[in-house]
Amino acid sequence: QLGQALSTRPDILPSIYCQELAKLQDQIPPFPTHIAIKSIESQLGMPISKIFADISEKPFAAASLGQVYKAHLHSGELVAVKVQRPGMSHSLTLDALLFHMIGGQLKRFAKARKDLFVAVNEMVRHMFEEIDYILEGQNADRFSSLYGSYPMNEKDHSESSSLPNQDVGIRVPKIYWNLTRKAVLTMEWIDGIKLTDESRLRQACLDRKKLIDEGLYCSLRQLLEVGFFHADPHPGNLVATKDGSLAYFDFGMMGDIPRHYRVGLIRVLVHFVNRDSLGLANDFLSLGFLPEGVDVQSVSEALQASFGDGTRLSQDFQGIMSQLYDVMYEFDFSLPPDYALVIRALGSLEGTAKVLDPDFKVVESAYPFVIGRLLADPSPDMRKILGQLLIRNDGSIRWNRLEKLIAAISEQASDTDASWTKSSSSPLGWRSFDMRAVVSATEDLFTFILSKKGSRVRVFIIRDVLKVADTFLDGLNDDKFGWEARLVSGLGSFRHAVMLAPEMWAAMAIRLALKPQFQRFALDILSAFFAHSSHKLHPNLWICISNLIHHS
């Protein structure tokens, strides 16, 4: 257990040791059923016959910490009974002591970081939490209230009151609290199909892409929106039900990250996609991952070197982490415990999804959700990240990124009346954009561009307008229209997006047009255009403009 946990800590051990430790697997045989029954009777204080009408002779699942039996209550309900392996508390304590004994040698020969023992102590704390089944039951109830479509907890959670229950395909087993103790957990039995069972999934006519989408959306909400997350969503902890839902199990290993870290994770993702190594280095510094006084420029250069020329930069999460491992170790990164669990959760999520789709890439697939969060959240920090997504550090616009964003909104946006709902006919309903949020974000972006802070952006916009004008007019004079298709496509996507909510866009346009800053900027563009391009104007200009309007 400790070895597997350390495999997710590239800030503590060199990458070669992390890779080897990741190969460790649980290979402990199940313990005898008569010992499990004695444990149940001891924990619940009554004979097994008074607790259950029947219980399976052998466990249905077994792992290093415990095993699960199938049983019926006297009321007829089918339940799963999770029984802790005897002596787990003693074993974990012994493992921790042994690790401390050999820790000095590990630091010496494996070149482990000086804070190795701090990390190990934190991992041991998490492991003791894992063997507390009362805590696991509470985690399950909390997870159900936040993300499940069938909340099992009767208590109201304040953190979920402001969050709509959007995960219509997520199941969480009900906890039977009267039959749950620290070493015994009784919960609802949910029949399901293992995600590795390709033939049964096919026989049940389950949509693999929809299952991936359900799990991805739920995981992204956990990590980027709410903060309370399942840290080990591997195929053994997830099953598909016959109605197409995704059922989660094993809530012993959970993480909880505050908003500061969630926003930081979004910022890291955006800077990674932009290949902005300096932005990444500053992100790691602001999140407290780097020690004080570190040379940020050196970290940036090391990150840039890990990117290479772009041809070997992977969108596969494990590939990304492999590229970052050496940098994290070299510069003494220090990951907060729950952020280390984030790395584990993302790795497990991608590994699980790859069972259903070998080409799945978590970073690429998460991007629409991130864009949706950036558009929907008007807070200053999220608006700043949106600006960084579309505007380079020097003030120039990332037109390709903007073009793709407009196309995505045009293709996937939903009307405001149906925003943030899942369509029964489309498993990608959550990827839709709320048009009210899109218009609001667009207006905020224009407001920034028109402000004093946006002066450099305005200069680059004028420069780019003149370049487009030159291309346009040179195309007229040379009778070449190769540029037309892309321009028409962009205008078509924008028109489609506008037509999804014309009243909102019109109201925004009127508000902008009435601003003196906008009027001055429009005059600056026109003045620069006529001063730069008047000698290139062609007699057929207006005919071409008419054709463009007609084609768009």
Automatic annotation (TrEMBL):
InterPro entries: ABC1_dom, Kinase-like_dom_sf, UbiB_kinase
One family name in Pfam for this protein: ABC1
Domain ABC1 atypical kinase-like: 23-281
PANTHER family: CHAPERONE-ACTIVITY OF BC1 COMPLEX CABC1 -RELATED (PTHR10566), PROTEIN KINASE SUPERFAMILY PROTEIN (PTHR10566:SF124)
Family named by the database record: Belongs to the protein kinase superfamily. ADCK protein kinase family.
Record's protein name: ABC1 atypical kinase-like domain-containing protein
Species whose genome carries this gene: Genlisea aurea
